C-alpha cells in the first residue's frame, strides 16, 4: 500500500450525488486538482496514462469518436467500448460496456476541476462505483504529482479500504 495514495483518499471526504436518468442512474463526482487541464487531459485519453490510474484502459487513444475495446488488466477479456463525444480538452463521453462515462475538465485558478458522470443500470452498484472512483481519483492525483504508484484495482483497491469506503458511500447515497 502506498502512503501517498492513502493520504489522498483520506484527504477527500466521500462526496457524490446520484440521480435517476431515464431508467438508469448517474453518479456524479468532482475533484479539484492542482494540475492544469493540459496535464490532466492526456491522463483521460491516452492508454498509457489511463493504465496508470483508471480501470478503463482502451486499445487506442480516446481522442476521436468511434469504437474501441477496453480491459482492466492486460490478460482480461476485451470489453466493448465507444467514444461518443470528444471536445478536447474539456469533455469526453464514452461507453464502457453498458455504462456511459462523461468526463468534464475545466480550468480553475489552482489547476483544474475534473467531474465524472457515470451512468449505469443497477442502483445498488452506486456505492461500489463511488468507492472505486474515489480510490482511482486518489491514484490519479498521486500520478499527476509524479509519485511512482500503481493502479488500484482488485485486491489493491481493497487494501486501500474499498469496503469501508463503499459503506460510507452507501450511507451518503441512500
Explain what you see.
This protein has six helices and eight strands. The chain is of the alpha+beta class. An eight-stranded antiparallel beta sheet has the order 1-2-8-7-6-5-4-3. A hairpin with a 2-residue loop joins strand 1 (17-21) and strand 2. Helix 1 packs across helix 4 and helix 4 (126-144) crosses helix 6 (162-173). The longest helix has 19 residues, at 126-144. It is globular and about 35 Å long. The model has no long low-confidence stretch (mean pLDDT 95).
Show the helix and strand layout.
Elements: H1 3-11, E1 17-21, E2 24-33, H2 37-45, H3 47-50, E3 57-58, E4 66-71, E5 79-87, E6 91-96, E7 99-108, E8 111-120, H4 126-144, H5 155-159, H6 162-173
Antiparallel strand pairs: 1-2, 2-8, 3-4, 4-5, 5-6, 6-7, 7-8
Helix pairs in contact: 1-4, 4-6
Beta strands, count:
8
The largest sheet has its strands arranged as 1-2-8-7-6-5-4-3
Indicate the low-confidence ranges by residue numbers.
Answer: none
Following the backbone from N to C, one meets helices and strands in this order, namely HEEHHEEEEEEHHH
Query: What is the typical, i.e. mean, pLDDT?
Result: 95
| Estimated structural class | alpha+beta
* Separation of the first and last Cα atoms: 30 Å
Overall, the morphology is globular
Number of helices: 6
Helix content: 25-40%
Major β-sheet, in short?
Answer: 8 strands, antiparallel
Amino acid at each position: 500500500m502506498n502512503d501517498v495514495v492513502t493520504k489522498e483518499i483520506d484527504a477527500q471526504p466521500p462526496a457524490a450525488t446520484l440521480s435517476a436518468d431515464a431508467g438508469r442512474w448517474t453518479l456524479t463526482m468532482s475533484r479539484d486538482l492542482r494540475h492544469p487541464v493540459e496535464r490532466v487531459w492526456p491522463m483521460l485519453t491516452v492508454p498509457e496514462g489511463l493504465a496508470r490510474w483508471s480501470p478503463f484502459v482502451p486499445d487506442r487513444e480516446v481522442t476521436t469518436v468511434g469504437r474501441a475495446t477496453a480491459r482492466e488488466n492486460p490478460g482480461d477479456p476485451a470489453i466493448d467500448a465507444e467514444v461518443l463525444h470528444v471536445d478536447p480538452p474539456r469533455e469526453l463521453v464514452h461507453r464502457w460496456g453498458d455504462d456511459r462515462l462523461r468526463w468534464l475538465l475545466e480550468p480553475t485558478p489552482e489547476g483544474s476541476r475534473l467531474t465524472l458522470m457515470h451512468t449505469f443500470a443497477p442502483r445498488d452498484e452506486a456505492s461500489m462505483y463511488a468507492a472505486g472512483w474515489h480510490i482511482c481519483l486518489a491514484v490519479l492525483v498521486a500520478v499527476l504529482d509524479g509519485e511512482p504508484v500503481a493502479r488500484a484495482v482488485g485486491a489493491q483497491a481493497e487494501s486501500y479500504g474499498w469496503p469501508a469506503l463503499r459503506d460510507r458511500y452507501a450511507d451518503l447515497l441512500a
